[in-house]
Amino acid sequence: MAAKISDQINREFYSAYLYLALSTAADNANLRGTAAWFLGKHNEEMAHGLKMVRYVLDQNAKVTHGAIAAPPSQTGSVLSMFERTLEHAQGVTAAINDIVDHALSEKDHATNIFMHWFVTEQIEEEATVNDILGRLRLFGDSGQGLLMIDTELAAAAKMMGQEAAAVA
Fold first, then answer.
1. Of all residues in the chain, what percent are helix, strand and coil, respectively (each to 5)?
2. Does this model's pTM top 0.85?
3. pLDDT one digit per residue (tens) for the chain, 168 residues
4. For position 62, which CATH number holds?
5. In Å, how far from its chain's centre is CA 38?
6. Which 8-state DSSP code applies to residue 72?
7. Residue 148's domain spans which residues?
8. Are the CB atoms for 19 and 36 separated by under 8 Å?
9. How many domains, in total, are found in the chain?
């Protein structure tokens, strides 16, 4: 189980790296709200990885660290950034569900319970990205539509920061 969770820790840190790359690409395009939103996701993913590290250590098991791949260098349009984000989140969801399935098969109740938080988090993550994609498809990812979405993402990023501060 520690190996499976260690693999997931690596996925969480890759997610953080991916979101950091998307944040910098958005910032380079002068989309400060989109950049802030992706930076907020970066911070969340780092926290998820660290939460899993603490869990493995608290179980008196060993965390194994793997290499973290570089994120894609080409990000494309804002629409493609969020399509990539949804695809990535769906892959993370599948991996988390695999850990839960494994915990259930091993009758590892502690890990099963621990992973439920992540299952719920992934549902929220995919729903949020789907909502953003819906807006991008409706209003477009250029001109005034993009400006409106960028402004909304700035407000959402601010809320993410406040929620993170409240938890800390």
1. 80, 0, 20
2. yes
3. 999 999 999 999 999 999 999 999 999 999 999 999 999 999 999 999 999 999 999 999 999 999 999 999 888 899 999 999 999 999 999 999 999 999 999 999 999 999 999 999 999 999 999 999 999 999 888 788 899 999 999 999 988 876 655 544
4. 1.20.1260.10
5. 9
6. P
7. 2-167
8. no
9. 1
Q: Are 153 and 132 in contact (CB under 8 A)?
A: yes
Residues 6+ apart with CB under 8 A from 107: none
Q: Give Cα separations from 70 to 17, 18, 58, 95 (angstroms).
A: 8, 8, 30, 19
DSSP readout, 110-146?
Answer: HHHHHHHHHHHHHHHHHHHHHHHHHHHHHH-SSHHHH
- What are the structure tokens assigned to 168, written together? 């800390």
Name the token pair of 9.
């820790």
